[in-house]
Amino acid sequence: MTDHGDNQQGRNLTSAYLSISGMAKAYRGTPALKSVDLDVNEGEFVALLGPSGCGKSTLLRLVAGLLEPDEGTITLADQRIGHLPAYKRDIGLVFQNYALFPHMTVARNVRFGLDMRNMPRAEAETRVADALALVKLEHLAARMPSELSGGQQQRVALARAIAIRPRLLLLDEPLSNLDAVLRASVRTELRELHARTGLTIVMVTHDQVEAMTMADRIAVMSDGEVLQHDTPQQIYEQPASDFVAKFVGTPPAAMLQVDRKIDGRFAVGDTIWSPSPELEAVLAPIQRVAVALGLRPDHLALTSADAPHALPATIRTVEYLGAERLVHVEAGGQMLVIRLSADEPVVTGAVGVAIVKSPPVFDLTTGLRLGRAG
Ligand SMILES: Nc1ncnc2c1ncn2[C@@H]1O[C@H](COP(=O)(O)OP(=O)(O)O)[C@@H](O)[C@H]1O
Ligand SMILES: [Mg+2]
User: Fold this and answer.
1) What is the pLDDT of residue 348?
2) Which residue segment(s) compose the domain that 153 sits in?
3) Are residue 202 and residue 270 in the same domain, yes or no?
4) Pairing, β 266-268 against β 254-260
5) Which ranges does the record mark as transmembrane (predicted)?
């Protein structure tokens, strides 16, 4: 086992390919990152997901060596790289604006990093051909960037980053300059590229759909911190906090604030509710702290107002989405969304909401998920 040289607070970092530890960065005294720890396995595709300004690009630039940290260490393939200049880290970078050289052909653009490394011409040309083949642009090698679409330019930028055979590929919002149709196809291509090359990829995005569909694991960030680093399924089904639950999913989870009332009945705003015994068990922490249920459409079904244990509600709007409809209901002044298939009849007026699957419960004060009962 490799010795990392110093005590890294008892965390087992020896197994991770990229290991970021205690990384902190402030701009003019304002913290942008607050002691971030993050491990990425070899061959993994990790998304850094969070709202604008939460510190994603700062973290990526620190790994790339474009910024100096105030504190923290970075280990890549068992080597401390924090002291290395960017060009010695063997890291490929692709930004939102593709930054191709406009006066160079596609092939020259892709060869640029190889020429910088004084690679012999024959080997460089093989690498350029391989990289262009990987992004399916062999046939456009002689074109100028201005003769390419936005999506093609982005693929050239990718080929340029891959051609150096980086130990790590960093992508900062690589799809956000593309239109919706192109974004979807480049998303798939990037995923395929990852599968073909086995590259370790860290991608910054503020788009939860992008993160959910592309990444093996997602690090959800807020305000300079990583809140949760997990698989998309874990992030979706076991969100660590209400922030994560509300940031991920289409539509995002609704937080239903529930107050205890007497005789086993609960208050949701001014609505009185008698939940099932199973759900009462889930709501047990309510005796100690103020709670909210994180309810996604998959937790809910529409029933009649007088169905046993149904939460009394009123339909407000129905969104037609082709294969399905999203029914927005109000319960005790709070909004919930229920999914119906297109052929299910929609009732109107007073309805009941059934909670058909055990939902996560959050402490309203801390925002953290409480251990599920049962
Ligand atoms: N060069 C800079 N100088 C001063 N503040 C910066 C600089 N770069 C980023 N920031 C600030 O640091 C915070 C994190 O920025 P950034 O890492 O770019 O976030 P993200 O990529 O998640 O949108 C933001 O508040 C941003 O305004
Ligand atoms: Mg950014």
Assistant:
1) 78
2) 18-239
3) no
4) antiparallel
5) none
Tell me, in angstroms, the distance from the centre of ligand 2 to residue 208's CA. 14
Among all ligands shown, which has an atom nearest to the Cα of 52? 1
Which CATH number is 208's domain given?
A: 3.40.50.300
CA end-to-end distance (rounded Å), the chain: 41
Ligand number nearest CA of 225 is: 1
Give distance in angstroms: CA of 362 to centre of ligand 1. 30
Tell me if 55 CB under 6 Å of ligand 1. yes
11-69 per-position pLDDT tens digit: 444 579 999 999 999 999 999 999 999 999 999 999 999 999 999 999 999 999 999 99
Closest-lying ligand 1 atom to the alpha carbon of residue 224: 14
| CB atoms near residue 68 (< 10 Å) | 9
For residue 134, tell me if it sits in a domain: yes
Atom of ligand 1 nearest to the CA of 54: 22
Give the Å distance between the CA of 224 and the centre of ligand 1: 10
Question: Mind listing the pLDDT tens digit for each residue in 89-131?
Answer: 999 999 887 789 999 999 999 999 999 889 999 999 999 999 9
Query: Which residues share a beta bridge with 336?
Result: 329
Of the candidates 48, 44, 40, 370, the one whose C-alpha atom is nearest the C-alpha of residue 224 is: 48
